[in-house]
Amino acid sequence: MQDVEAKSMLDLSNPPKSIDHTLNYDYKIVNIENNQVNIKLVINIESIPENLFKIKLEVIGKYLFKEAINEEIVLNDVPFLLDALAPEVSYIVSFLTDRMLKQPYIIPPIISLELDVPKDTKKKNTKASI
Hints:
About 20% of the residues lie in helices and about 35% in strands. The chain is an alpha+beta fold. A hairpin with a 2-residue loop joins strand 2 (about 20-35) and strand 3 (about 35-50). The longest helix has 16 residues, at about 85-100.
């Protein structure tokens, strides 16, 4: 985890009957060097009703491959690579909300991204060996 911002605006004397959330993910490939890639994942989660909590996490995944890689391989495998961070993100949100609200709020351990892949990069159904 690189950075975390968490705000609780809850009046615990009047808890809501139900809670939902908005969730946004974004990522950036920090660097690719030989057989290693670092990807930063930024997660923004806000409760509905919006006055309960707001959390922003920045997590960096460091991946080692068995062979040298390039940007095309990484772009094709970004969903697979980020899915490895999903359980950690879910755990961190659960831990933080438990401390803020006295009850954990658990998000599914799934990273769902709308990926922008360059037009000249073809999607392949192959996974790099990690």
